[in-house]
Amino acid sequence: MTLVDREQVERLMVLAGALRSGLVDVLAAGPVTATAATVALQANGRAVAVMLEALVSLGVAERDQPPPTSGAGSVADAREVAAPGPRYTLSALGRQRLVDPGPELERNWLLHQSNKVRSLYELPFIITHGRQRAALRAKKDQKACALTMGEGPSGPRDAVVDRILGYMSPSRPRNLLDVGGAVGHMSARFMARGIRPTLLDMPEVIELAREKLGAVAAGMDFCACDFLRELPAGPYDLVFLGNIFHIYGPARNRDLLVRAGRVLAPGGVVAAVDFVWERSARAALFAVNMLQATLEGGVWRERDYRAWFAEAGLEDVDIQDLAHGSNQLLLARSPLG
Question: Are residues 194 and 309 in the same domain?
């Protein structure tokens, strides 16, 4: 058994390259020859031919006849590409995973993972200097990151909502503030339970959220601002922080929790989903990811969270391991009076 599956990185980067180049979307538009795909992309014929066959081998594309020649080298020959040949299109699997909205879509997740691979290539520099090169930090694909949060089935999100409501029972929240809520993937699940959400994120992310949510957005309030600087006054029965604390260092996390506590109604709850060092199997490797992605982020210990909650005046701290994934749900409430 090898330490790393030798094909997985190649599969990831081939799929991400096909997405970024537009080749996947050309295939999604309908059957197309290699020649037509080359023209549509204003691309190199040899490269397009190779990529099309690679996508067929991965099961995300299919062709209506054998490739132009049987030779592995000849199939990439530009002269072959210029001749009439098979027509390619996305397979049912390709449409499901790369194009069509739904719980199986992983388009933006693939792009996000490929971004991480490229960034982790800088680990030797990061090990020496403690942070990524400034020029690379400025090139982060925030759109793919935000949209990734909204992909996948709703079941694990509903399970988180169930646990939060169980902690708050017998009372039931009327409203919540979804801090750094990306494209509203959690806000939508709370709203389905009759809880009015306020989705807070940066203006460019809120714009993405409105587009992705469509008609669902009419049932939400939006706050386009930087949560490190301000939070709306509330009061809120619930403040939700999903995957926030690993981005920042202890001082900012402590300050954010203190400010979150101030906008809670009496007896209101702060709920967070994140990694806890002693309890998450992914903690150590995820901390490396934060080295390349942030200036001060990391994976924090249970005692850190408990101290931050206490400094925010929150009590009844409960930390639960989530069944889906290897992260944790952290809960605490404000005093009743």
Answer: yes
